[in-house]
Design a protein that fits this description.
With about 750 residues, this protein is an alpha+beta fold. The protein is about 50% helix and about 15% strand. The longest helix has about 40 residues. It is elongated and about 110 Å long.
């Protein structure tokens, strides 16, 4: 059985925090200046305008908006992918999070602005009609009255549809990127970023509450939620003294309120949570266990606990069953006390009625009655006569409608019965969800008030010249000419014994040029576009390739991962062609590959139009690709192809040309330590420890995308650097130094990369 009521420990979700200190203040020295993608901005305005036209129509209208939906999803995906990948460049996760809120602010401001413009236009038309004593004045004023009355409902309709498109992209295409770069421990990103409370200008509006939560039973600014929540808090504190509950409504503090409240969100939360104080450079929101609906299910899912008690009797006997039954009765007692209090306040049936109204709501009903009045009727708080008197535009209900309503009234009565514990659990969970979303809503509006969306060219120019502008652009909107190289990786493949191979082929009257071309250079050339590689140097005994990372394309920052993938494919090509050469009596090729990363751009010299790359990584990769002849005699070929030994003090060769190590690299790929550290930033690597031939081997397993987006397995072996002393390896030497080999054995890669059962 699950834990008893007294032993239950419910941990609140961790605090959410956005650190703003790392972001440059804009030209007004308070806000962060943000430019939103012109493509995305256009798509938002176009879709919001079309949705508003539908929502504002006197009669229900629908039209095909699939092209607008597709355009918005595409531009949002492009813009957000580029933004999320900036954690690898100029932004930390907190900064990315704030700029995401800037995107949401733009959407909400746009839809609200377009609606306000429509209302202002109607006001102007009404004033002009009155001055001219036109017969249209009455119609215009009626229209204006309807729009103002349904302001929140229209915003809810429009924003819900726009945010549904964002949710689709987030769920299907951005979730993996978020998981890798922006983990939100204990919080659902969709609840936080796409919080339904953001859709409306007034979270206490009855139409919104019925649509997304429940009608709380009051007529004040807080819609009765504060009293209901306080009662629930008090009862739970009394019944569960071991579980601390932080009160939602904060007592007035000593801090100063937030300076800005452009969308009015902090004013709205003040009704429920008290004043939002200015948090300066840190935005924080704390959470109670009561802010998590799952905790209420854990405590009060009577059906599940009843089943657990029955199972307890079967597994542990009557004594355990008796104790479990007493615990179950305690849980029931708490729920019954809450039901009793809600019945006393005559709001239980009203709370239960809300989901029923949401279920049957339609455009026809919207033209007949307010949702709040229908809730009151279905909850038994008003009679049929009162219901008919409160209809809109004289559109009374038909006998068929009243029959349906009566059936629902009887169902609600049954749900309000003392033994229907599921109903009160649902109510408690909705209270919890409303609390959670209020806190997400306040954090979002705090973030909104810290960013300024710049639209005017003069403002954009001023902020850009001041170096304070953050641009959220799609990759296509970034200027390629200004997209400078910021980092790079180098592959050096040392083709061993090329002179010997050439001589052997010539002695057999065979063509060395065609041999190297068909078996090595041509297949490699075909792979370069797949991994985004560039030729630096290709000649008989060496291949040097570069992988460049550009400032404005962080989504393509996989230089090390792709270099590892290409190096692995190069060896696969060599191995496959060696088997063919052996069958034909031709000499075999042997490689040693070194792979290095530099967190700086390379330099370029120019031979007329031909660029010549200058990089210290080339020299380092050359050393990593080498193989000391002494080690070739000692190391036996096996599953792995690389070993590294540090030269002891006084050992011959130590210190020459910065050399402190010797290497065995025969058909292997040696990755430098800086490259491995960069790889850990590029992709998610899982550390795996395996036993191979009695030896413990540490592997790092992950996947990376090629240029086309296809995922490839990658396995890195973490080896221990040995010690070379007195012209021999020191036995049983232990060291903290590590080297990293790209694993090429297909069987091993398949075994450790496959999902474990």
């Amino acid at each position: 059985m699950e834990s008893t009521l007294e032993s239950t420990v419910l941990s609140p979700a961790p605090a959410l925090q956005l650190e703003l200190a790392g972001l440059r203040k804009g030209v007004n020295n308070y806000h962060i200046d943000v430019r939103i993608s012109p493509k995305f901005s256009t798509d938002v305005r176009r879709l919001a305008s079309a949705l508003l036209s539908q929502a504002m129509a006197p009669t229900a209208q629908t039209s095909d908006l699939s092209s607008q939906f597709n355009a918005l999803r595409t531009s949002y995906l492009d813009m957000m992918t580029a933004l999320l990948h900036r954690v690898k460049t100029d932004l930390n996760p907190d900064s990315v999070g704030l700029l995401e809120f800037a995107t949401l602010k733009f959407i909400l401001s746009t839809s609200r602005g377009l609606l306000d413009d429509s209302i202002d236009s109607l006001k102007g038309q009404g004033a002009a009609a009155q001055q001219s004593q036109s017969g249209n004045a009455l119609t215009t004023n009626q229209r204006l009255f309807w729009l103002q009355k349904n302001y929140d409902a229209i915003l809810l309709t429009v924003n819900s549809q726009i945010f549904a498109q964002l949710e689709r992209v987030e769920t299907r295409q951005l979730s993996d990127v978020r998981t890798q770069y922006l983990p939100l421990q204990g919080h659902n990103v969709l609840d936080l970023r796409l919080n339904p409370m953001l859709f409306t200008s007034e979270p206490g509006a009855s139409a919104f509450l019925i649509d997304r939560y429940r009608l709380w039973g009051g007529d004040g600014e807080d819609a009765g939620f504060n009293a209901l929540n306080a009662e629930v808090e008090g009862l739970l504190r009394e019944q569960l003294p071991h579980l601390h509950i932080a009160g939602l409504l904060e007592t007035p503090g000593t801090g100063t309120p937030e300076l800005y409240d452009e969308l009015g969100g902090l004013f709205q939360t003040q009704k429920f949570m008290g004043m939002a104080t200015d948090m300066k450079t840190t935005l924080t929101e704390e959470f109670s266990w009561l802010d998590n609906p799952a905790n209420l299910d854990l405590l009060f899912n009577i059906e599940r606990h009843t089943a657990a008690v029955q199972e307890l009797r079967r597994q542990s006997g009557w004594g355990a069953w008796w104790e479990g039954r007493k615990d179950l009765q305690k849980r029931r007692k708490i729920l019954l006390s809450i039901i009793k209090q809600l019945k006393k306040r005559r709001i239980l049936t009203l709370l239960i009625a809300s989901p029923h109204v949401q279920r049957i709501w339609s455009p026809t009903l919207a033209e007949q009655i307010e949702g709040k009045i229908l809730c009151q009727y279905l909850g038994g708080l008003i009679n049929t006569q009162k219901l008919q008197s409160r209809t809109l535009n004289g559109k009374t209900f038909t006998p068929a409608q009243l029959k349906q309503f009566e059936s629902i009234r009887q169902e609600i009565k049954r749900e309000a019965g003392a033994e229907r514990m599921a109903s009160i659990l649902g109510i408690l969970q909705d209270i919890s969800r409303f609390r959670l979303h209020l806190k997400y809503y306040r954090l979002a509006h705090r973030a909104f008030n810290r960013v300024r969306i710049l639209k005017l060219d003069s403002e954009l120019t001023l902020s850009k010249e001041a170096g304070t502008l953050y641009s959220l652009l799609t990759p296509h909107e970034q200027v390629d000419e200004e997209d400078r190289i910021v980092h790079h990786a180098i592959i050096k493949a040392d083709v061993r014994g090329s002179t010997t191979v050439t001589e052997e082929l010539q002695n057999k009257a065979l063509n060395p040029a065609s041999y190297f071309s068909l078996r090595f250079f041509s297949p490699i050339n075909q792979l370069l576009p797949l991994y985004g590689a560039n030729k630096v140097f290709i000649e008989g005994d060496a291949v040097i390739l570069s992988f460049l990372e550009h400032e404005k394309k962080p989504q393509q920052w996989f230089a090390v991962a792709r270099a590892c993938g290409l190096a692995k494919d190069m060896l696969n090509i060599v191995h496959a062609n060696n088997r063919h050469s052996e069958q034909m009596g031709l000499p075999k090729l042997e490689l040693g590959i070194g792979l290095c990363y530099a967190a700086t751009p390379p330099l370029f010299l120019y031979d007329e139009d031909k660029p010549i790359m200058i990089s210290s990584a080339i020299g380092k990769a050359d050393r990593l690709s080498s193989c000391t002849w002494k080690l070739r005699r000692l190391v036996q070929p096996g599953l792995f192809n690389v070993e590294v030994f540090a030269l002891a003090d006084g050992e011959h060769g130590r210190g020459e040309k910065g050399q402190n190590s010797i290497r065995y690299n025969v058909n292997g790929i040696l990755l430098d330590n800086a490259g491995f550290a960069k790889l850990q930033q590029e992709i998610l690597l899982k550390r795996v420890i395996v036993k191979i031939n009695g030896d413990t081997v540490v592997l790092h397993v992950g996947k990376f995308p090629d240029v086309g987006g296809r995922m490839h397995d990658l396995v890195i072996r973490e080896g221990q650097v040995g010690l070379w002393q007195d012209d021999a390896p020191v036995p049983d030497h232990t060291s903290d130094e590590r080297f990293y080999e790209v694993v090429t054995n297909r069987k091993l890669i398949s075994q450790v990369s496959s999902p474990q059962p």
